[in-house]
Specification:
- By secondary structure, the protein is mostly beta strands.
- Helix content is about 5%, strand content about 40%.
- Strands 1, 2, 3, 20, 21 and 22 form a 6-stranded antiparallel β-sheet that branches.
- A hairpin with a 5-residue loop joins strand 13 and strand 14.
- The termini are far apart.
């Protein structure tokens, strides 16, 4: 979701409405129209996955600066339900199982389909159902209670979900059949968040223990939390300027983490940056950005809020992004994108320094 910072940016549209209309990237209407009125959610739904090029002006393009290769993208729609909207975060299992949460308080699951070249080609086995509340029943109370923004899978399979508006983090224990059990509250940062700029970024962080998780606020604040203890502040992860917000985390490779920032202004439209940070818990001066993916200009863009990392079929790193379409108008879509990245080879070691021989006395 977008909050006060984005609202300030959108306010600029009032004075630049004519200019913004010309400059903001336009999207064609979805290929499949949703029903005119809400219908009951799932559990099983049909999903239409329409291929989306990386660059509409150059459909053959697959490379992006930073060493990233486009591995396919899909526009997701459904004729089964009007609730396949607002995807805020996702996780991808080793078997290609996709799990996402929405800001309407739903869980969306599907199976990734890859083509012969390992590129993202479609989804099957779509399911959609409401998150449970503390009483074991679907969460009630409207947007104030259902606005789920972050998803993390702990090493034991339990799921963490962060909510904004009513800011909280719940742990959903994994049942024997893999289903989501009744949740319980777990530690969250001891701070006051703006109403609609809460804990957008969430990931398990095994490098700090099996019960550790990283939490990020949209303004860039970061905390390291443990189920058995409190949350401690970590160095912030800020975007390039105030038009950017932190919306996603994905830990990988030990202590490293991928950060997702999305930006918007009425002139440049939506933009996104994914950075691979060496260790977000170290002081800022000791952190290294090992790679960065920028989606801007003519590249495919939208309100990206979720990021996940897996192994690519070729053995490198695969990055998945999902967008929150806000369920308004035709200028936003529910996108699922895949990018592959291979770490550059390490530089050859420096030759050993020659050993200086000591001169003896004559």
């Amino acid at each position: 979701m977008i909050g006060p910072r984005s609202a300030l940016v959108f306010a600029l549209i009032g004075g630049l409405s004519g200019f913004a209309t010309q400059c903001t990237p336009k999207r064609p209407p979805p290929v499949v129209q949703t029903p005119p009125a809400p219908v009951k959610a799932g559990p099983e739904i049909s999903v239409t996955a329409t291929p989306a090029p990386l660059d509409a002006s150059n459909p053959a393009r697959v490379t992006v600066d930073g060493g990233f290769t486009y591995a396919g993208g899909l526009v997701l729609t459904s004729t089964s339900t009007s609730r396949l909207h607002g995807l805020s975060d996702l996780a991808i299992g080793g078997d290609g199982q996709l799990t996402a949460i929405t800001d309407e308080g739903d869980v969306f699951e599907a199976k990734l389909q890859l083509d012969a070249n390992g590129r993202l080609a479609g989804l099957t086995d779509g399911k959609l159902w409401p998150l449970k509340g503390l009483d074991g029943q679907p969460i009630q109370g409207g947007k104030t209670q259902t606005d789920a923004e972050g998803l993390a899978i702990l090493p034991n399979g339990d799921r963490l979900v962060s909510f904004e508006r009513n800011h909280r983090i719940w742990l959903y224990p994994t049942q024997a059949d893999g289903s989501w059990g009744t949740p319980r509250p777990v530690p969250k940062p001891a701070t006051v968040f703006p109403d609609n700029e809460g804990m957008e970024a969430l990931t398990a962080y095994p490098a700090a223990g099996p019960d550790a998780y990283l939490v990020g606020g949209e303004e860039g604040e970061v905390w390291l939390c443990h189920l058995a203890g409190a949350c401690q502040s970590a160095p912030p992860q800020s975007g390039p300027d105030f038009t950017w917000g932190l919306t996603g985390f994905a830990a990988f490779g030990g202590g490293a983490v991928a950060t997702l920032h999305r930006g918007y202004d009425p002139i440049r439209g939506w933009r996104a940056i994914v950075r691979f940070i060496s260790d977000p818990t170290k002081p800022a001066a000791q952190q290294r950005i090992t790679a960065a993916l920028h989606l801007e200009g003519s590249l495919i863009r939208d309100n990206f809020e979720g990021v996940a990392l897996t192994r690519s079929p070729s053995g490198g790193t695969r990055l998945y992004l999902v967008s929150d379409d806000q369920a308004v108008g035709n200028n936003q879509r529910t996108l699922l994108l895949a990018f592959d990245w291979v770490a550059p080879p390490s530089p050859p070691p420096l030759p050993p320094k020659p050993i200086k021989k000591k001169r003896g006395r004559h």
